Amino acid sequence: MEYRFRHKDGNLRWISSRLTSNWDAAAGGWHVMAADTDITERKQAELALQERDRQLSTLISNLPGVVYRCRNDSFWSLEFASQSIVNLTGYTAEDFTRDRRVTYAELIHPDDWPSIQQAVETAVEQQSAFQITYRICTAAGVQKWVWEQGRGVFAETGEFLAVEGLILEVTQQKQMALELQQLNQALEQRIAERTAALIKSETHLRLAQRIAGVGSWEFDLRSQQITWTREIFRIFGRSTQL
Questions:
Q1: Residue 209 binned pLDDT confidence (cut-offs 50, 70, 90)
Q2: Residue ranges matching CATH 3.30.450.20 in the chain
Q3: What is the CATH number of domain 64-169?
């Protein structure tokens, strides 16, 4: 058993006791022997480790995305995933790590696989970080866009062991970017149509002026410049090169 003991110096010390008992038939009673060990340093190390684990768990739970560690295999088998993965995929962390109901690779859109594999393989070869954006399909069949940053984990021998990283949902940002792209394309189309219509209108105006023998001119008050149409030049017998 383990218990705390108030030392002579006033500090609490952790003690581990191992008790053994033997029946003494001659004496008609039990003999109890105890072996006590001071385990204060070990206990302090354990408590410090527990506190670090608690801090890490709190930090991970407060992150907006999914913190993960996955194996070096073709299925991206998850060894660890923060609980927020259920909000992203509809599957719990245990579905991936303990029960093996599903692998993360199964959720990735097949059209995005080639670029993902290329990015990860390049990063692993260079032992650098990678950033990728791709689509996944949730348990409910909903398509989502995610952004992922990760890095390979290597043994001292250089052996590639796993990938650790962070996954964030960026569906809303992707939709906004797509809508902005569509808006820009529509605007460019409108500008092209208006420009074509203006050119056509000016062509018709010049043709009408030439047929009717009517010219026109414009005077810019700010620049004090006069602009003549071709028909005005013809009427006054002047060259357009002047």
A1: low
A2: 64-169
A3: 3.30.450.20
